[in-house]
Amino acid sequence: MSRLTQSIKLRVNHLQGRRIEKGIIDALASGGFVIEEFEGTLTEVDDHSPVEYDCQIVDWRDADKEIAQHFQLLAGREPVVALIDAHHQQEDTELVTGFSDFVCEQELGLASFALRLHRLIRRYRDPLTLTTTNSPEAQVLQTVVNHSSDWVFIKDLDHRFLALSEEYANTLELSLDSVIGKNDLDVGFSKDVVLGSEKADWQGFWPQDDYAVAQGEPTVETNPYWRVFTGDTRHRRTIRVPLKNHWGDVYALLVCSEDVTALVKAEQVLRERSEMLEKVTQEKLKAENSRLMAELAVTAKNKFIATASHDLRQPLHALGLYLDVLEAKVQSSDQQALITKIKNSCKALSVLFNSLLDLSRLDAGVVDVDPIHFRINSLLTSLREEFEEVAADKSISIIVDDIDATVFTDAVLLERILRNLIQNAVTYTEVGYVEVRCLVRETVLHIDIVDTGPGIPRYEQNAIFSEYYQLEHEGNRPTIGLGLGLAIVRRLVDLLDVKFDLQSELGKGSVFSLHIPLGDETSIIETTALSAQSKLSGQMVLVIDDDADILDGMQHVLRAHGCNPIVAQSANDAIELLAERDMVPSMIIADYRLENGQTGDIAIRLVREEFNTDIPAIIVTGDTSADRLKEATNSGFRLLHKPVQPDELVSEISSIYAANTD
Hints:
By secondary structure, this protein is of the alpha/beta class. It has 18 helices and 22 strands.
């Protein structure tokens, strides 16, 4: 028995009503074939199911059309041999296309049939080999491959080229015929390229081919172009597809390779940008965390300062009241001079506390802008007189232009801006002068505050407008103060929406410039100031404050001006006391923060409700926190801030009383 036929397994189909004679099966078995008999009807063919035999044989001696059409579905998938009569003729060629070969009963035992069957099976198991590269099917495949602009080639399991595109042959600088049948080493590739190089971190062609064949599945990888060893920096993406027959065996390897250098570089750029974006995002998060920490620190600092400010304002307010009373009782000129110095110290403390208050009011958004038409000359004259003595003590000059101009803005806020700028200039100027220059240009009044001070470095010209920031010059410590003056200026000019500039050079002084819109002289409203000395004699003034010292000081001040003060620490105490005396106060002065969480506006409303009368009222507060200021301002009552100078308090009482009397 020929070794060639030992492994051939034939499937003999016993179809319904068409059983193959036992003699034929015996003849096949005697030829050395392994027989698998199948009985049943024609069924749909599953193209994806593996084939467990080498060839099928079916009885077609009556040229049954249904059988022919059924096996046409298997054409090209597996070999099918039709058993026919020796004299059989078939003119309809379409009926024979489903069969791979035909055999007569007389040929079954011949060696020629076994040889034909072996060659037939081999052609199906290995559709493309070196011996079939000139076959019509191989030529069609070669034509298709040639039309690819990428590198396309097919190798057998020994790495020999079976077909390849002209594009790849041109890259090798070889002809198609000179490549077919050779492996990578034969066509000129080095061993490092073919077998791999650890030094170059290159896996090699053959290991990648063998891996794809062993896995039996397609693989995709992007590698440097093999000419990387000569310095080429291009990249290629290679797809390896194991070609399998219908028995599931890999018989060849299809390789497709395209140039993806642009894509790789784009991916690299995208990756680098992503990494950069991630770094930027991380840095942004760090900066955001730092900002939040800084804001928390500022919030905590402001809360501490507000609390400390309130606690310190209380005794300072009481001290001012007592000093006013003491001043009225002291007759000696020496003692009067001493009290004057003490009062000046109290006023200096008040200035510092009021800086905190101004900042808190701006933060709270309770500063209203009330623009009016007014002559600026009187405001400038008042400021010059205010700082003349301070400038003289430092042996510097203060010069203020005398200009007859009308402006339209908030007079109180403009005065605060100019005062802070002049104060800043006087504070830092040791030699020379401070000058307020005014010049009308078109519809704007330019005001420049010029000094001959040390100047401000450019890198600090933004920082000076921050809270609690003070400059050091030539190693000198900052001046006494809180460093809030310019911070308040910045917020006020933003509130007024006026142009504000700074020009300064180290060692050459500074110029702060304001551009104030001009007003209409005919729109000025002349007002007559109410006398602070309006008769208060006999007026009953109710004072509600939970601080005993302040109540005592208020009693002395009000009595000194002819008032009849009634003091209480809460609204309930005040109502009981007034009810006992059967009195209705003509004025209420209440501290905003009272004991047991009560506030001054609530206390005033309780007293008003008790007597069913809208008694004029003033709230006095030592709070500087933004939230407290909003609450106090929203109460609708006149608001004074501790420490209140006695003359200011009496003037306010007189004004309100006179207004209500009118």
